[in-house]
Design brief:
alpha/beta, about 170 residues, single chain, 6 strands, Rossmann fold
Length: about 170
């Protein structure tokens, strides 16, 4: 098994504080010392953060997340548009994007994969089941998959729109 040796920086783009808290709690129970979960509730701010164009950030020393967790139903810029932007940007397109959505709409699922989503996970209503899916996500992306070393550098963020959990 391939162990991720360094701090795993994850960007979660989701306007639901409740969903963010579920993911945060599940990951903290999983491996508190190796996880830095960053949260943006707004798609435009997440894109600005990833592209280093947020006027409120000091982005000189920023790196990129190892994984992006993306909700589709966001205010303003929706998740499909964010996914399309990430996967069409040569500087961002290799970042794995896992769509976390309440939707089971087959057209949305197909669209996400066609645009380059790495996975599509339906958010269960049941808290225990949601927590188990987050654990499975962690096992896959940070215990099984080998990610490029450039993701190990982490994120040094001073952006007020993207908040580090904890």
């Amino acid at each position: 098994m391939n162990k991720h040796k360094h701090m795993a920086h994850i960007l979660m783009v989701d306007d639901s504080e409740d969903d963010f808290e579920v993911v945060e709690r599940a990951l903290r129970r999983r491996d508190q010392k190796r996880i830095a979960l960053h949260h943006s509730s707004d798609g435009l701010h997440a894109l600005n953060f990833l592209r280093h164009t947020c006027q409120l950030c000091r982005m000189e020393s920023c790196s990129r997340p190892a994984l992006i967790l993306l909700d589709l139903n966001l205010p303003g810029v929706d998740g499909i548009s964010i996914l399309k932007s990430i996967k069409s940007d040569p500087n961002l397109q290799t970042i794995p994007v896992v769509v976390l959505s309440t939707s089971d709409n087959q057209r949305e699922i197909q669209t996400c994969y066609r645009l380059g989503a790495s996975s599509y996970i339906s958010k269960p209503v049941d808290l225990d089941e949601f927590t188990e899916r987050v654990n499975q996500l962690w096992n896959y992306w940070f215990s099984t998959v080998r990610l490029p070393e450039e993701y190990d550098a982490g994120i040094d963020t001073h952006c007020p729109h993207v908040v580090k959990a904890g």
